[in-house]
Design goal:
Elements (H helix, E strand, L loop, with lengths): L1 H7 L1 H23 L4 H24 L3 H32 L10 E5 L3 E2 L2 E2 L1 H16 L4 E5 L10 H12 L6 E4 L5 H16 L5 E7 L3 H10 L3 E7 L4 H21 L5
Parallel strand pairs: 1-4, 1-6, 4-5, 6-7
Antiparallel strand pairs: 2-3
Helix pairs in contact: 2-3, 3-4, 4-9, 5-6
Length: 263
């Protein structure tokens, strides 16, 4: 044991010990805290990086050439990946501010999870943001969009409509689109609804969603040939904000590389 500690060095032992709380956190995020699976994945990735740099020198004792090149290749890939993640996160953060000062006749409010006891935290954030925007712009019409998932008691659109009316928004200013199951469908079905009600398909649309989601929503809007106006709903729970901003990087690259009509 002393020989092993001597070969590793005290700082590497410290890093190995740090893997324990990271593993506990990963377990909690995956199996105890709903909605934090991506944070668990990040913890596992950090553990993997630590183990690689701690254990590869031991491999190098028997296979020095392999360990040398494996470490170089891994380091290059890691640095490149971190640069891509950092640049993407910067774009997401910049887009998260939106353009809430711009006026537009119609806004699309994207739905989020409805729990058995009412709106989720994310949905409450979007409801309150929609209320604030509609109060500040008394002529705007909101399309609340979201269908009913298998684990949801009612549609997301109905839930938002009910609570916005309870907050004091006039019912005639809220149009329901209750069939969409993804962001792509939110946009497509809502544009269809607007065309049906107004006789023309808008070329500009305000889209209200959680701030971390605005950049990806803008990509969908561009694909629909719609001028995007981002209206951010600030995420009230910090841990959720941190998790979702990290997860959004993966969502953006999934869309860029694979496309797809998903949420």
């Amino acid at each position: 044991m002393k020989e092993l500690i001597s070969q590793l060095g005290h700082w590497k032992i410290f890093l190995l010990c740090a893997c324990i709380p990271l593993a506990v956190l990963a377990y909690l995020c995956k199996f105890v805290l709903p909605g934090y699976s991506f944070s668990a994945l990040v913890c596992v990735a950090v553990i993997g990086v630590i183990l690689f740099y701690v254990l590869m020198p031991l491999v190098g004792l028997k296979f020095p050439v392999f360990a040398k090149w494996a470490t170089r290749i891994f380091t290059v890939c890691l640095v490149a990946g971190l640069l891509v993640v950092g640049a993407t996160e910067a774009i997401i953060i910049r887009a998260s501010f939106g353009s809430p000062e711009r006026e537009t006749p119609y806004i699309l409010v994207l739905g989020a999870k409805v729990n058995d006891n009412g709106p989720s935290v994310s949905l409450w954030d979007r409801i309150y943001a929609a209320y604030d925007y509609m109060t500040a712009h008394p002529d705007v019409i909101a399309i609340v969009s979201g269908g009913q998932g298998k684990d949801e008691p009612i549609t997301e659109a109905e839930c938002m409509y009910t609570h916005l009316v309870d907050l004091g928004i006039e019912p005639h200013r809220i149009w329901l689109e209750d069939q969409a199951t993804s962001t792509w469908e939110n946009l497509q079905f809502s544009l269809d609804l607007l065309e049906e009600k107004t006789g023309s398909r808008p070329t500009e649309l305000g889209i209200l969603s959680s701030e971390y989601h605005l950049f990806r929503a803008s990509l969908f809007a561009k694909a629909c040939d719609v001028d995007f106006i981002g209206i951010p709903a600030r995420t009230s729970r910090f841990s959720q904000k941190l998790n979702h901003f990290m997860r959004e990087v993966a969502g953006v690259w999934h869309y860029i590389l694979l496309g797809g009509q998903y949420s």
